[in-house]
Amino acid sequence: MRYEYYVVAYDIVKTKRRNQVAKLLKSWGERVNYSVFECEIEKNKLNALRKEIAKLIKKDEDSVIYYPICLNCRAGAIYDGKTVERKFDETVLIC
User: Fold this and answer.
1) Domain total for the chain?
2) Strand order in the sheet with 3-11
């Protein structure tokens, strides 16, 4: 199985929608900041995630951004302050 790595960031106006998106993203990845998740996604599943999120947000009020990140970029990330333990198996990620 092939995976891609994404950082998903969101800015959602209403608390109820924000909580729904956060709950959904927790099933896809790891929360690394209040509105940022790192997600390891099967190569053909990104559109499924986007469709699920689209059902929860209001496009005229909210935004969600999906940043593809290669393994080398992820390995070079610099963290200041509290960090979250990463649980992904880096051997299966592709760039």
Assistant:
1) 1
2) 29-33, 36-42, 3-11, 63-68
Output the domain CATH number for residue 12: 3.30.70.240
Measured distance CA(64)–CA(25) in Å, rounded: 11
Percent of the chain with pLDDT over 90: 64
What is the DSSP track for 58-75? -TTT-EEEEEE--HHHHH
What is the tens place of the pLDDT at every residue in 44-61?
899 999 999 999 999 999
Rounded to an integer, what is the distance from CA 80 to the centroid of its chain? 20
DSSP 6-46: EEEEEE-SSHHHHHHHHHHHHTTEEEEETTEEEEEEETT-H
For residues 72 and 59, give the distance between their C-alpha atoms in angstroms, rounded to a whole number: 32
Instruction: Say what the pTM is.
Output: 0.82
